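If your schedule permits, I should be very grateful for your opinion on a structural question. I have a record of one protein: its chain in single-letter code and its fold written as discrete structure tokens. Would you kindly read the sequence against the tokens and tell me how you understand this chain to fold? Thank you for your consideration; the sequence and its tokens are set out here.


***
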Amino acid sequence: MKAIAAVDRNWGIGMDGGLLARLPSDMAYFREKTLGRTLIMGRKTLEGLPGGRPLAGRATLLLSRDPAYRADCEVFGSVEACLARVAGLGADEALVAGGAEIYRQFLPWCDECLITKIDAAFPADRHFENLDESAAFQLAWEGEALSENGLSYRFSAYRRLGLGPGRAAAEGGACAGEGPWQG
């Protein structure tokens, strides 16, 4: 599984329910990486999309604490139930798309994070884990600096060092049968 996000210098991802910046090239990158795949997101992220509906051309798996919540997609009440649904998909088929709490809950199962790093600091009330300081991830590649709407940014990818709990359990590694992901 992968995560995809745009972050500022402080790994901020949002403020007051909205994105920190709108970069058309980043939106095109998001579309390229997610079209035809499955997105995992929370209710607030879904409601922040155009029309509050899932994006066209992508299956959406929604995590919500409200068991009565209804949306035009599959709704799950727990991380475990959502992970069970994702288990049948290929490693590149599911992408975690936010918000902050959803990233936090699913990051242990992500092997790669596609991060647009915006070279600016914005007021933010939602953050992604700082992967530059993470012992679990390493910068795998970083693209050239781009500029749009007066902002400089780069596309980058971070890869997990070793196995996360999802892959370890699937491959019979040290985490198999341990923790909240056990079946």
Notes: The chain has five helices and twelve strands. The first helix runs from residue 24 to 34. The longest strand covers residues 151-160.
